Automatic annotation (TrEMBL):
It comes from Litoreibacter albidus. Residues 1-42 are annotated as: Disordered. This is Uncharacterized protein. Residues 33-42 have a biased composition (Basic and acidic residues).
Amino acid sequence: MLKHKGFPSRLPGSDFQFTIRRDNKGGATPLTARERYADRRPADRRADAGFIWALVQHFGEEPFERGNLDAGRLNWVFGREVIPAEDPFDPASYEALLRIDIRRVQANFPNAFAEEFIE
């Protein structure tokens, strides 16, 4: 499992994690798109925004390996702002390639391109 050096491990001041420390002995948790409802808590929305900001700052438009990125956090943006970068795509692989859909990020998280994280 690739560890993304320099990628934030969690949203500062919260318990929302962005990365995992070690791989799961039973294999990677499969990625599945989760529905984001309009009535989500503000803390959950900040976590999504912080995660997208970190992805944009760390990877930009280039494809990246899933590696140690937390599946729970990825599932909230998978299929919308983060999409598969390879075909066929294995959602249960730490080596799976992903990429950011810049147009969707600009529409849903306009602050993701700021130098510092803005809520």
